[in-house]
Amino acid sequence: MSDWSDCYDEARGAVILRVHVQPRAARTGVVGRHGDALKLRVTAPPLDDRANSDVEALIARVVGVAPSAVTIVGGARSRAKRVRIEGIDGSRLAAALARSLGGAAPGR
Q1: Which of 18, 19, 22, 28 has the most other CB atoms within 10 Å of its CB?
Q2: What is the pTM of this model?
Q3: CATH code assigned at 24
């Protein structure tokens, strides 16, 4: 399994994932790594929290949790965000990321 441990921190019953977001992309999806963060692309512009909503929905879909379990807790106005995902641990997150990237190594 790929090692994503430097992209998240575990907190009581949740994971705090660091993400780097590219808004206004041609398509929405998980790209790979951006330093110590997961890189995501979303089609929404960074206006009226549309990109943030797309980030939360994408992470919920990829990880397999309810959308209400995903909350941006830092960087709401930045490309670098911290996202809290309730009800999972690091190993479940790493497995979901590996699946979403077709088993690709996290790379740098």
Answers
A1: 19
A2: 0.89
A3: 3.30.1200.10
36-74 per-position pLDDT tens digit: 999 999 999 999 999 999 999 999 999 999 999 999 999
Can you give the length of the chain in residues? 108
Residues 45-48: contacts with CB within 8 Å, 24+ apart?
46/77
For residues 5 and 102, give the distance between their C-alpha atoms in angstroms, rounded to a whole number.
18
Whole-number Å distance between alpha carbons of 62 and 21 = 15
* Cα separation values, 9 from 14, 79, 88, Å: 9, 19, 12
The boundaries of the domain holding residue 11 are: 5-100
C-alpha to C-alpha distances, 1 to 21, 35, 50, 89, nearest whole angstrom: 24, 19, 33, 15
Is residue 106 in a domain? no
CA distance 84 to 75: 12
CB count within 10 Å of CB 40 equals: 27
